[in-house]
Amino acid sequence: MEENMNQNADPAAGQGTGEKTFTQEDVNRIVQERLAKEKAKNSGDADFAKREQELAQRELHMTAKEMLSEKGLPVQLFDALNCTDKETLEKSISTIETVFNEYKANATSNTKFVGFQPGVSSKMPAAGATEDIEIRKAMGLRT
After folding, report:
1. Which residues contact 63 (CB under 8 A, 6 or more apart)?
2. Could you tell me if 112 and 131 are in contact, meaning their C-beta atoms sit under 8 angstroms apart?
3. 26/23 Cα distance (integer angstroms)
4. 8 A C-beta contact, residue 127 and residue 143
5. Number of neighbouring beta carbons within 10 Å of residue 81
6. What gap in Å lies between CA 90 and CA 83, rounded to an integer?
7. Which among 36, 68, 103, 137 has most CB atoms closer than 10 A?
8. Which residues contact 131 (CB under 8 A, 6 or more apart)?
9. What's the mean pLDDT in 33-52?
10. Which 8-state DSSP code applies to residue 76?
11. What tens digit of pLDDT does each residue of 84-134 get?
C-alpha cells in the first residue's frame, strides 16, 4: 500500500523516462519563433504579389502608349486614360480617339484666315508714328 501512495504522489516519475516536459516559458518562446517564421514567409508572398501587380500595371501603361501611337493620337493623352484594366483602357482610348478626330475635323473646316491682301482693301494702315509716315514717303506710298 505504501508503494501505491508513492506512485499517486508523483505520477510523472512513473511514466516514460524519455519524454521531455516544457515549461510555459519554453512553450511561449517556441510559439513566438514559429509565428515569426510564418510571418516572414507570408510577407515574402505579399512582396511577390505586390511586385507582380506593379509589373502588370507597368505593362498595361506601355500597352496604352503603344495603342495611342498606333491610332495616331498624341502620347501626352496617356494621363487622361483610365488604366485599371485592359477593357477599360480600350474603352478610354476609343472615346478619346472619337473626340479627337471630331475636333480635328471641325477645327480645319471652320477656320478662315483673314489677313492683309495687297490691292484688295483701300484702307490705309493707321500711321501713328512719324517714322511710319517717313517710310511711306520714301517708298512712294500715300500718307
Report:
1. 86, 89
2. no
3. 5
4. yes
5. 21
6. 9
7. 68
8. none
9. 80
10. G
11. 888 998 898 899 889 888 888 877 665 565 666 666 655 555 545 566 778
Q: How many CA atoms lie within 13 A of 65 on its CB side?
A: 8
Q: What single-letter amino acid sits at 111?
A: T
One-letter identity of residue 59: E
Q: Residue 56: how many CA atoms within 13 Å on its side-chain side?
A: 9
Q: To which residue does cell 523516462 refer? A: 17
Confidence of residue 5 (pLDDT cuts 50, 70, 90): very low
Q: Within its chain, how far is the Cα of 43 from the centroid?
A: 24
Maximum C-alpha span of the chain: 148
Question: What predicted TM-score, i.e. pTM, was given to this entire model?
Answer: 0.43
